[in-house]
Amino acid sequence: xxxxxxxxxxxxxxxxxxxxxxxxxxxxxxxxxxxxxxxxxxxxxxxxxxxxxxxxxxxxxxxxxxxxxxxxxxxxxxxxxxxxxxxxxxxxxxxxxxxxxxxxxxxxxxxxxxxxxxxxxxxxxxxxxxxxxxxxxxxxxxxxxxxxxxxxxxxxxxxxxxxxxxxxxxxxxxxxxxxxxxxxxxxxxxxxxxxxxxxxxxxxxxxxxxxxxxxxxxxxxxxxxxxxxxxxxxxxxxxxxxxxxxxxxxxxxxxxxxxxxxxxxxxxxxxxxxxxxxxxxxxxxxxxxxxxxxxxxxxxx
Length: 301
Description:
The chain has helices at 5-14, 29-41, 52-61, 77-89, 103-110, 152-169, 190-203, 218-222, 224-229, 248-260, 286-299, and strands spanning 19-24, 44-50, 70-73, 95-98, 125-132, 137-142, 175-179, 211-216, 242-244, 266-271. The protein is α/β, with parallel strands linked by helices.
């Protein structure tokens, strides 16, 4: 099991694993810093799609030989995203990466049914992986960026995507906390009912490869002391590997809180597609973008 992002990177390097990405709207310092770092680490080659002059100037600032990079000129974000998705569909690269463009523009291109990057009836979901320093382990939070108000059916698929991701990390039977504002079922709060149904579905074998429990408050999901104080007996409470959030708003706020308040290292990945989608926030640091690349390369294996 990998305890942090550095351990994943070292394992990829040790096993000589290298993939190739296409970066849409690559004219961004943090995005380029991360792909340059990934190249120097020997885990990723990249095709850079975007404002050619800006890309070349940034590469020069980063100490790179510009002529050693493949650059495709396209100043229009939507067209750059379509070029990037097309390169993946044609198997010229292994995965697409979002640069300095809107998430909706990126997703519209990669979700084009004609390209076949998404299986029929599949649901893609975003997952933020953070290094929980206090316990030196990786924890997955989903969904923080794609599914706005998932119902029971979508949450079931979000769990399945997150469980597959945890299996890649080396967590054989991840503990899944379905997070809600309170631990009791309240008919006025959909998240509590969804959590109870997902827990039952897991007990009946409809959700496999993990242990699901909920509804659990965020405090009970991550703190054994909080769970004990409230008298909660659970195999998941206090030691969750996966936190399933009630909706995008709560997931997105937690994601940013982990980075800006707690200062945790994070990685943002997308699961559920036929290939990894490297989709980070435009405000993400170069370090977190590199973590996202590292985890996406691992995800592709």
